[in-house]
Specification:
four-stranded antiparallel sheet, alpha+beta, membrane, disordered N terminus, ANK repeat, 35% helix
């Protein structure tokens, strides 16, 4: 059975399974450009608005009106350019693109994307235009935003090069090592989490990163023998795989096992449909460390009556240890775009993992019992003459990972402001959600083939809202009425106990490190490191730090050593002659 659903000037063909067919999307393209009956509109009425473009998008004004409005605003306000206007946030943190996506106005979306509207801007509630596009469920809208995102990433990489060149010129040549260790308080997840020791070398205006961990994304990572090169002398040159001036020739990634290399150019079309399928199949997740209440206090060592400030060697540096107090992680999950089948699949994952964990638990109990029986004859020799409360404390510390301080037993978790508008049939407990998260991580790390990504069709559009512009803009700040698909939202907060080690001996300044990390912001785990180091930290350089990656995973980053070296081989910063170019080796880069 096929039904036609009228939505103003846009119509969709709804299939019997509740989705929209590919044919219906073509039909939408055909009718989406049809304008409504012309209405006389006075641009000056909008110019007096604090957010004129927002209102024009909200009220679905025709494209020629938006064009005239942009021109009028830039003429009246010389300090604003097109980028400032299309990137402006309203009282709720929404950009015009946020609103266009919530309403599903394809013509407005395409117009704003042509103006290079920012797609990573988060509103007060933490959601980007891409998040809202996933909620709306239109494949072509999601794809358009993803394509612009890749283009903007490439442009941003090129824009960072001049500042990076200036930074590199000011720093003497050096070599540095840092270790990444990923931790979780979920037993099953611990088995799959990676670790890595990265080597960073800098010579002149070039630097090199050797790593076995290319990227740690939301639910997946890639391993290998890899080298990332920034070749300063090549800034601005064209790649042999592209004739466009925007395609920088300075950023290269090499696979040292296959002896191939690829210029990082963000191939806009590569694997885009698979990415759309992935996004439409999973929860929208927003994780935000709440840094407003963070404070630092010196960590203590010693016994009760002989306490002193903790200072230890980290790598080759003496470091002062601090406790990070008030470290809270807020996690928001939305799933209004998921079907009952998707939610049922998550429940099936939970049941499978629950059985797996029960088997592991029973095996550990059996092994522990055998160990205790075999060692019982040594009890009279191995007794420890300490009060029982110290034994209990010691055992608890051992079970929880010693001094890591990033496990579930040393943190406090509460549910806050849970909202469910999509029914409770698929609602999981926190334990179930953690296990499902573990399953997704293990699957994306290549350890599990039980979670194939199915092709997704567009969802039928949500019911149109009757909210007026006045009601929207006058709503309490950060609490606007829902304009798109009704949210199915869960909010959780978690208090984490973490530490940081600061050293006065580290030769590199935090400012210089932040500038270098700008290039590595291509990779999410380095981006997280940059964001955390940018906080108001205690004196010194953070040689050891705990960073939240996703709700169930934290990364511990340790700077092992740093040495100035003015005799580095120039060949280290060039592509080896026996390597061949493979423009598709790393599709996401």
């Amino acid at each position: 059975m096929i039904k036609f659903i009228g939505l103003g000037r846009v119509s969709y063909i709804k299939m019997s399974d509740g989705t929209c067919s590919e044919e219906s999307e073509d039909f939408v393209d055909a009718v989406d450009d049809v304008q409504t009956t012309p209405v006389t509109i006075n641009i000056t009425d909008f110019e007096n608005e604090p957010f004129p473009l927002h209102r024009a998008v909200f009220e679905n004004r025709p494209l020629h009106f938006l064009t005239e409005l942009l021109s009028s605003i830039t003429k009246r306000n010389k300090s604003m350019d097109i980028a400032d206007i299309v990137g402006q946030k309203d009282l709720h943190g929404n950009t015009p693109l946020h609103l266009a996506v919530m309403f599903g106005h394809r013509d407005h979306i395409n117009f704003l994307l042509q103006q290079n509207a920012p797609i990573k801007t988060k509103n007060i509630q933490g959601w980007t235009p891409l998040d809202e596009a996933i909620s709306y469920g239109d494949r072509k809208i999601i794809k358009s935003i993803l394509l612009l995102g890749r283009k903007q990433a490439r442009q941003s990489l090129g824009n960072r090069s001049p500042k990076l060149m200036e930074t590199l010129r000011a720093i003497k040549d050096f070599q540095m090592e840092l270790r990444w260790e990923f931790h979780s308080w979920i037993p099953l997840l611990k088995r799959f989490l990676p670790s890595d020791v990265c080597a960073i070398s800098k010579r002149g205006c070039s630097f090199r990163l050797d790593t076995t961990l290319l990227d740690f994304n939301d639910r997946r990572w890639r391993r290998g023998n890899l080298t990332f090169l920034f070749i300063g002398n090549n800034v601005g040159k064209k790649s042999s795989s592209s004739n466009t001036a925007a395609d920088r020739h300075s950023l290269v990634i090499m696979d040292n096992e296959l002896k191939v290399y690829q210029y990082i150019r963000y191939n806009e079309e590569m694997d885009i449909d698979e990415d759309v399928d992935m996004l439409m199949s999973t929860d929208l997740v927003y994780l935000q460390p709440n840094t407003k209440a963070i404070s630092f206090s010196r960590a203590q060592s010693g016994w009760f009556f002989n306490r002193y400030n903790k200072t230890e060697k980290v790598g080759q540096f003496d470091a002062d240890f601090y406790n990070i107090n008030g470290f809270m992680i807020e996690t928001k999950k939305r799933r209004e775009h998921l079907s009952e089948e998707d939610i049922y699949a998550n429940k099936a994952i939970y049941e499978t993992l629950k059985k797996s964990l029960e088997q592991q638990k029973n095996h550990r109990k059996s092994s522990q019992k055998s160990l205790e029986e075999s060692s019982s004859s040594f009890d009279d020799i191995a007794q420890i003459d300490q009060p029982s409360k110290f034994n209990n404390t010691q055992q608890l510390s051992t079970n929880n990972g010693g001094n890591n301080h990033i496990n579930g037993d040393t943190s406090h978790e509460t549910d806050a402001d849970d909202h469910h508008s999509g029914g409770d049939g698929g609602e999981e407990t926190d334990d179930e959600e953690n296990l499902i998260e573990a399953a997704m991580v293990s699957a994306m790390s290549g350890q599990d083939d039980q979670l194939p990504i199915k092709p997704r069709r567009s969802l039928p559009p949500p019911t149109q809202t009757n909210v007026t512009w006045e009601q929207y803009i006058n709503a309490p700040k950060g609490m606007p009425p829902c304009l798109g698909r009704q949210w199915d939202l869960k909010v959780r907060t978690k208090n984490l106990k973490a530490t940081i080690a600061m050293s006065q001996e580290f030769p590199l300044s935090i400012e210089s490190l932040l500038n270098i990390l700008e290039v590595f912001a291509t990779f999410k785990h380095f981006k997280k490191l940059k964001e955390f180091i940018n906080l108001n930290l205690p004196p010194g350089f953070p040689v050891k730090i705990d960073i939240p990656m996703i709700a169930t995973i934290l990364a511990r980053v340790t700077f092992l050593n740093f040495n100035y070296n003015d005799k580095l081989d120039a060949n280290m910063f060039e592509i080896p002659a026996d390597y061949t170019e493979d423009p598709n080796r790393f599709p996401d880069l």
